[in-house]
Every structure is written in structure tokens, then in C-alpha cells.
Amino acid sequence: MTDATHERIEKTVKDNDVVLFMKGTPLFPQCGFSSRAIAILDRLGVAYDSVDVLQDMEVRQGIKTYSDWPTIPQLYVKGEFIGGSDIMMEMFEAGELETLMDEKQVAKAEAE
């Protein structure tokens, strides 16, 4: 991973309270795991940003190095790596993800 890619990823992670590195977009997820991750975030009602790794191969590979995690999607909350869709699902079902969002004082999504 180039320094520039690392810096771009780090800036994205630090500048957004909640960011999901995913395949596709929230409206058009390109894999089931990304779709599930978006569904969880939408159910929680939190404001989040997303990065479509399919649009940038350097970010697609770089995020795996950055987090030392081999799969996508990847969720970050307030700069902290949380995990992929399986971990998100486990935490969501246990109520832990909602608690984490509250503890980190993550903003709620604005109603459209």
C-alpha cells in the first residue's frame, strides 16, 4: 500500500464518526455481506459514510492492510475498527452495537 493510499484511508476513518468500507453503495450494495452491513446501520438509525472499494483497487487492498483484516465490508466507529458483517450482526443481535454507538455519541441519521 502506498503512503498516499494509507493517508487517504486514515483521513476517511478519522474524519467520519461511522464509515463502512464496502462493495458497492448503500443504495446498490454489490455483495450480500455489504447489504447486511448497510441494513444493520440503517436499523440503528445512525449517520454513516461509505466507501465503495470496487471503485478504487488501491483502497480495496489497502483497507485490508490498514485493519489487518482480510475481508470487506469493514466498519469503523470513531476511528476504531469494529469488524465485518458477521461481527456487526453478532453485536447488533446482542445489543452491543447500539450500546457502542450511544457510548461513542454517534449522531443519528437525519430523516429524509
From TrEMBL:
<dbReference type="GO" id="GO:0015036">
    <property type="term" value="F:disulfide oxidoreductase activity"/>
</dbReference>
<keyword id="KW-0676">Redox-active center</keyword>
<feature type="binding site">
    <location>
        <position position="31"/>
    </location>
    <ligand>
        <name>[2Fe-2S] cluster</name>
    </ligand>
</feature>
<protein>
    <recommendedName>
        <fullName>Glutaredoxin</fullName>
    </recommendedName>
</protein>
<keyword id="KW-0479">Metal-binding</keyword>
<feature type="domain" description="Glutaredoxin">
    <location>
        <begin position="18"/>
        <end position="82"/>
    </location>
</feature>
<dbReference type="Pfam" id="PF00462">
    <property type="entry name" value="Glutaredoxin"/>
</dbReference>
<dbReference type="InterPro" id="IPR033658">
    <property type="entry name" value="GRX_PICOT-like"/>
</dbReference>
<dbReference type="InterPro" id="IPR002109">
    <property type="entry name" value="Glutaredoxin"/>
</dbReference>
<comment type="similarity">
    <text>Belongs to the glutaredoxin family. Monothiol subfamily.</text>
</comment>
<dbReference type="InterPro" id="IPR004480">
    <property type="entry name" value="Monothiol_GRX-rel"/>
</dbReference>
<dbReference type="InterPro" id="IPR036249">
    <property type="entry name" value="Thioredoxin-like_sf"/>
</dbReference>
<dbReference type="GO" id="GO:0046872">
    <property type="term" value="F:metal ion binding"/>
</dbReference>
<dbReference type="InterPro" id="IPR014434">
    <property type="entry name" value="Monothiol_GRX"/>
</dbReference>
<keyword id="KW-0408">Iron</keyword>
<dbReference type="GO" id="GO:0051537">
    <property type="term" value="F:2 iron, 2 sulfur cluster binding"/>
</dbReference>
<keyword id="KW-0411">Iron-sulfur</keyword>
<keyword id="KW-0001">2Fe-2S</keyword>
